[in-house]
Design brief:
Layout: E1 12-19, H1 23-38, E2 43-51, H2 55-65, E3 69-71, H3 74-77, E4 85-88, H4 95-104, E5 108-112, H5 119-134, E6 139-142, H6 149-159, E7 166-174, H7 191-194, H8 198-201, H9 203-214, E8 218-226, E9 231-233, E10 249-251, E11 257-264, E12 269-275, E13 284-291, E14 294-299, E15 305-310, E16 321-324, H10 345-361, H11 370-389
Parallel strand pairs: 1-2, 1-4, 2-3, 4-5, 5-6, 7-12
Antiparallel strand pairs: 7-13, 8-11, 9-10, 11-12, 13-14, 14-15, 15-16
Helix pairs in contact: 1-10, 4-5, 5-11, 6-9, 9-11
This protein binds alpha-L-sorbopyranose.
Length: 418
């Protein structure tokens, strides 16, 4: 006899609106499509509406990316009963206005990093998020690299004391898409849109990763920013490195490289580097944490691997152990492939939604919160202010050789040696 199976209880739907549909919008759309198909989630996300400025392009993007409808005005989306969460994938100058309006309208919010373009915006967003959370409306910042299994293992090992007390951290995020001096302008090179250059775009990830793995916040920093290429071709006129660069050129108003010497709450020193001018480095988000009894090292360009050094190993066989973090015992991995098959960049976005929906399903606050995003913004701001004031910069007098006046690296005439 055909036993009538009792259908599982229908899960509560979560209507999603996504604002913005370029690189981040495509990565988030992939995650909204994939998360409910690979993970058993407490809520069923429905890709309800994609928002874009131009009607035709937004409609085409909605069809291609799997959204039920499209809209050109994000404010109208906040009035819709069938939208419960707003996913903000637009440039940083729009984050504060959209996120705060959505929270006030009772919509949960996921916002891409960096959370805002200024500390003032971030403080306002965090205050609004705290008020909304009291009413059961939640928010999260999109630091997806936390959701890489090897990064989760790094955090677990530090928390478990496997490398002892954290003594020092070195972290870099290196890309080279701007090392070509004819690479065209984009919103990421416009301070009014992006807030900063490498500092906020990729430095924010390195700052958050450091805090996530060590469990410590930043306590202070001395920073240095530099822009190597002050103007670039306007995108539509650009024809490539070996073609003729476009004639129209415009100003670059952000940093190409951001450096920082920092301390964590414990006093542990951190060296921080973010550069989009590092030839040959495509997406090298790296961190190495040295502790009293060992060290761990991660490079996103080998994202399925965590390297662990334990000083307790016998000296004759000591060395960094290359751990393939693909076993089902690690977070998220049971849902994917057998050991050794590995994950990719897009999986961090899917895991981000798994954690977000799991938190929303249990009525708990997702992490990282807007308060966490505010702290990252404070670090970025401190690097920028320190660099501008050169507050901690200590010039090193040139050494005069053979009577010739030595020149200092930045080309300024050397001050006479004392
Ligand atoms: C560009 O640098 C970028 O797309 C960043 O904006 C993303 O946050 C990073 O994940 C990849 O590189």
């Amino acid at each position: 006899m055909n036993q009538q199976l009792t259908p599982p209880p229908a899960k509560k739907r979560l209507g999603v609106a996504m604002i913005g549909y370029s690189f981040m919008g495509r990565a988030h759309s992939q995650a909204w499509r994939t998360a409910p198909r690979f993970f058993d989630l407490p809520l069923t996300p429905e890709m309800t509406v994609l928002v874009g400025r131009s009607e035709g392009a937004a409609r085409a993007a909605a069809e291609q990316l799997g959204w039920a409808g499209s809209e050109t005005d994000w404010r109208r989306v906040l009035e819709r009963e069938d939208v419960d969460l707003v996913d903000i994938c637009t440039p940083g100058n729009t984050h504060a206005e959209i996120a705060e309006a959505a929270l006030r309208a009772g919509k949960h919010v996921l916002v891409e990093k960096p959370m805002a373009n200024t500390v003032a915006e971030a403080e306002s967003m965090a205050a609004t998020a705290r008020r909304a959370r009291a009413a059961g409306v939640h928010s999260m910042v999109g630091f997806t690299y936390r959701r890489v299994p090897a990064v989760q293992l790094a955090r677990q090992l530090v928390a478990a004391g496997r490398i002892g007390e954290v003594r020092q951290v070195r972290t870099q995020y290196l890309q080279d898409w701007l090392a070509d001096e004819n690479a065209p302008l984009s919103w990421r090179l416009d301070k009014a849109k992006a807030g900063s250059g490498a500092l906020g775009d990729i430095g924010a990830h390195a700052v958050d990763l450091t805090m996530f793995i060590t469990g410590q916040r930043f306590a202070g920093v001395s920073g240095l920013l530099d822009t190597f290429v002050p103007e670039r071709p306007v995108a539509e006129s650009f024809s490539g490195l070996h073609g003729t660069a476009g004639t129209a050129r415009g100003p670059v108003t952000v940093d190409d490289v951001a450096l920082g010497l920092a301390r964590l709450e414990s006093g542990a020193p951190v060296t921080l580097e973010a550069s989009r001018y590092a030839w040959g480095r495509k997406n090298a988000l790296r961190i190495e944490v040295s502790g009293t009894t060992g060290a761990l090292a991660f490079d996103f360009e080998e994202m399925n691997v965590l390297n662990l050094y334990e000083a307790t190993d016998d000296a004759t066989t000591a060395g960094f152990r290359r751990i393939q973090v693909t076993e089902p015992e690690h977070p998220y991995l049971e849902a994917w492939w057998p050991p050794g098959h590995g994950l990719g960049y897009e999986h961090g976005f899917t895991h981000q939604l798994v954690d977000l929906l799991t938190a929303l399903g249990s009525g708990t606050a997702p992490s990282p919160s807007f308060d966490d995003g505010l702290h990252v913004q404070r670090v970025l701001d401190a690097v920028e202010r320190s660099s501008a004031a050169e507050s901690r910069w200590t010039p090193i007098p040139p050494t005069v050789q053979d009577g010739a006046a030595a020149s200092v690296p930045d080309g300024r005439a050397a001050a006479p040696a004392h």
